[in-house]
Amino acid sequence: MYRASYRPQEVNHCPSCGNSQWMIGRMTAECAFCATALPLVAGGNFGNNVLRKRPLRALAA
Ligand SMILES: [Zn+2]
Asked: Ligand 1 center to residue 43 CA distance, Å?
C-alpha cells in the first residue's frame, strides 16, 4: 500500500497534476499548481514526533 507523502530529500511529483514544485509548510507540502497537500514524512528533523521504525521481519524469527 502506497501512501503519498512528501520526502524533502527527493523530487516529489504531485499525484494530482504531476508537477514537482511545492510550497513547504510545517506539516504539509502543498502543490504550487493545484494545491494538493501531502503530509511531510515524519521523523528526521523533528525530534518530538518521531515514528519508531518497527522491524517488520520480527515475525520471521
Ligand atoms: Zn498538483
From this structure: 24
3-state secondary structure string across 18-41: CCCCEEECCCEEEECCCCCEEEEC
As a whole number, mean pLDDT of residues 25-47 equals 84
Q: Which residues surround ligand 1, an ion (CB under 5 A)?
A: 14, 16-17, 31, 33-34, 36
Q: What is the pLDDT of residues 3-22, one digit of tens each?
A: 689 998 899 999 999 999 99
Q: Does the residue 1 lie in any domain?
A: yes
Residue 20 CA to ligand 1 center (angstroms) comes to 8
Whole-structure pTM value? 0.61
The span from the CA of 17 to the CA of 7, in Å, is 17
Q: What residues make up the domain containing 24? A: 1-46
Provide the domain count of the chain: 1
Q: Examine residue 33 and state whether it is found in any structural domain, yes or no.
A: yes
